[in-house]
Amino acid sequence: MSVTMLELDNLEKDFGNSKAVDGVSLTVKKGEFIAIMGPSGCGKTSTLRMIAGLDSPTSGEIRLWGRRINEDPAWKRDAPLVWQNYALFPLMSVRKNVEFGLRQRGYPSARRVRKAEEWMERMGILAFADRSIDQLSGGQRQRVALARALANEPEMLLLDEPLSALDPHLRIRMQAELVRLHRELNITFIYITHSQSEAFAMADRVVVMNGGRIQQVATPQELYRRPANRFVAEFIGGNNLFSGQLDGSGCRFTTAARDILVERPSTPPVGDAACLMVPADRIELDNHCRGSGNEIQAHIATIEINGSTATLHLESDAGEELQVQTSMRELDTGRYLVGSPVVARWQAQDSLLLSA
Amino acid sequence: MNPAKPRPNLWLYGYVGVIFAFVFTPIITTVVFAFDVNRYPSLPMGGLTLDWFRQVLADASLSRGVRTSLSVALCSAVVATALGFAGAYVDYRYRFLGKNLYLALLTLPPLVPVVILGLAMLTFQSRIGLAGSVQGLIVGHIVLCAPFALALIRMRLASLDPDIEAAAWNLGATQLSTLRSVILPFCLPTILACLFLTAAVSFDEFMIAWFVGGTNETLPVRVLAMLQGQVSPRINAVGTLVFGLSIALVLISQLFNPGRRGRTQN
C-alpha cells in the first residue's frame, strides 16, 4: 500500500477555450481504491480519459511507476476502463467480449479460452457465455464489462460511473462486490462517480473535484469532518454553513443575523469573507435556552426520514435555515413535530471555519 | 391506443391502389407484351411466345451492352461502397469544423440533375482524356453511387455506441485492428446491401452513360438506340430482363440491410 504507482503532475486539458482539467496533481499508491467525485463537468471523466490514454493532456505529466506515459497510445496502456454505458461490443457473444483483450494481447487460443472462462465464472456470467449482448440485463452487462476489463489481469482498473445505470438494490450489491473484488485482486481502482454514497462506501481516499481543479483529497472520514472549503462542505452535504466574518479576537464569527462563538483558529481563514460550518449531527435540540454554547431559537419546518436517521429542517426566528440530524429513536419520542419551537445548540469546538 | 381493430378505410385502400396501378401498369404492360406473338402490341393478345427473348439473346449489340453494364456496375459498386464506407466512418469517428459542409458535399451528386452531371463529366473527362472510356464511365457512376452507400452505412454506424472504438483501444486493440475486428463486422450486412444497391443504381443509370460512355454502350443506352430505330417487341423483352435484374439487385440489397435493426445496447 505504500508504493507510488501513478502520478498526475499538474495535468491540464483544454477543450477550445475552456479548461476541462486545470492543474490536477495526484499520487496514487499501488492497490489503492481512489474515488474521484464531483458534479458533472468538474473534469473527473476527462482526468480518467487521460489516464487511459483516450485524451492527451494539454500540459502536465502522467507517470506510471515513475515513467512518463503521456505519449503511450491507449492500446499500449494497461488500464482497462469499465464504461458508464458498458460499451460492450455488439454482435459478439459474452465470451467474445471477454476474450477480446486477451486476443489483442496475442494469447494462444487454449489459454485465452481458459482465462476468459475463469473470469466469466468469477463474475457469475459463465452460464450465458454464448448469449449475445442484447439478451442480457443491465446487471449482467455490468458483469460482462468487468470480466472483459479484468481478463487481462491489469494492475489498475478504471471505472467511470459504472453503477449509475443500475437500480438501487443492484447498486448496493455491486458496491459490495466491487469492494470484495478490489480486496481479492489487490490492484489499483480509480473510480469516477458523482455519488458520495458510492465514493464513501468503497474508496480508501476520495478526490473531490470542481471546475477542473482538485478541491480536496482525503479519506471519507476526514472529508466529512474537515472539508477543505465551502464547496466540499456543501457537496458532501449534511452541514450547516454560515457566511460572515471572524472578528479581531478570533473567537467570534459575525453573520448578518447573529454572533457565533468559535474556537480561535490556528491559521486564520483566507480572504475577507469566510464560512462557518456546523455539522448537522453536532447540533443538539432542546426545548429552552440554557445559555451554554451557541443557541438558536427556531421551529421545525420539515422532517425528512432517511432510514434509521432523520433530518430536521429548522427555520430560525431570524430566518436562517438549519438542518439537524437526529435518530429515528429520538423522533419516536414524539417531541419533534412540524411547527413546534426548538432550541438548536452546539459548542464552539464543534464548528469549523472554512475559506469561502 | 384503440384496442378494437380499426375499420378498414376504403378510401385509403383505393387511393393506395390507384398509386400502385399508376406506377406499375407500364411495367406490367411491358412484361406482358414481351410474351405476345403480335408485332404491334394490341389487345386481345395474339398468343404467347418466347421469340422476342430469343432474338434479344442472339443480338450481339445487346449482349455487348449487358457485358458493359455489368462490368461497370460491378466496378462502380465496389469502389463506391468503399468510398461510402470511408466517408461514413470519418463522420462516425471525427468531429471537426465544417463537418456539415463535408457531409453536404458528399451527398450532393444525386441531387444534381443528371443531365448537368453527365454534361459536366463529359466536359471534364474530355479535358483529361478520360471521356469515351469504360474507366471514365465507371468514375462517373462511382460519383453518383457513393452517396447512396454513404447514407446507408452512416445510418448503420449511427446505431453504434460512439465509445465502442475507444473501448477496443482500451483493451489493447490498435486502430487498424479495431476497424477490422469491431467496426467492419458491425457494418458488414450494410456493406453487402450497399454493393447490391449501388450496382442497381449503376445498372439502371442512363444519362451519365450516354454522355461519357462514347462507344461503350451500356444496356440502357443500347435500348434507347434501338427504340429510336424501330418499335419492336424486343424492347419489351429487354425491358423485362432489365427490370428483373434491377429488382433482384434491390431486393437482395434489402435482405442484407439491417437498417436500424440490431441496435447496440442503451
What attributes characterize this protein structure?
heterodimer; A: alpha+beta; Rossmann fold; OB fold (Dihydrolipoamide Acetyltransferase, E2P); 2 domains; six-stranded mixed beta sheet; 9 helices; 25% helix; 34% strand; elongated; B: 266 residues; mainly alpha; 11 helices; 0% strand; globular; transmembrane (chain B); MetI-like_sf (chain B)
Describe this structure in words.
- The complex is a heterodimer of chains A (356) and B (266).
- Chain A has 356 residues and is of the alpha+beta class.
- Chain A has 2 domains: 4-225, Rossmann fold (3-Layer(aba) Sandwich); 238-355, RNA polymerase II/Efflux pump adaptor protein, barrel-sandwich hybrid domain (OB fold (Dihydrolipoamide Acetyltransferase, E2P), Beta Barrel), CATH 2.40.50.
- Helices cover 25% and strands 34% of the residues of chain A.
- Chain A has helices at 44-52, 94-104, 109-122, 138-150, 168-185, 196-202, 220-225, 230-236, 328-332; strands spanning 4-15, 18-29, 33-37, 59-64, 67-68, 81-82, 156-160, 188-193, 205-210, 213-218, 239-246, 252-254, 259-261, 274-279, 284-286, 294-305, 309-316, 321-327, 341-346, 352-355.
- In chain A, strands 6-7-8-3-9-10 form a 6-stranded mixed sheet, with helices on both faces.
- In chain A, β9 (205-210) and β10 form a beta hairpin.
- In chain A, α2 (94-104) runs parallel beside α4 (138-150).
- The two termini of chain A are 34 Å apart.
- The model of chain A has no long low-confidence stretch (mean pLDDT 90).
- In chain B, α3 (60-93) runs parallel beside α6 (134-158).
- By secondary structure, chain B is an all-alpha fold.
- Chain B has helices spanning 10-33, 51-58, 60-93, 99-107, 114-127, 134-158, 164-170, 175-204, 207-212, 219-229, 233-256.
- Chain B is 72% helix and 0% strand.
- Chain B has 11 helices and no strands.
- The longest helix of chain B has 34 residues, at 60-93.
- Chain B is globular, with a radius of gyration of 23 Å.
- Chain B folds into 2 domains: 8-49, no CATH class; 62-256, Orthogonal Bundle (MetI-like fold), CATH 1.10.3720.
- Chain A binds chain B through residues 52-54, 73-77, 79-81, 83, 85-91, 100-101, 103-105, 133-134, 141, 148-149, 152, 165, and chain B through 160-161, 163-164, 166-175, 177, 181-182, 185-186, 262-266.
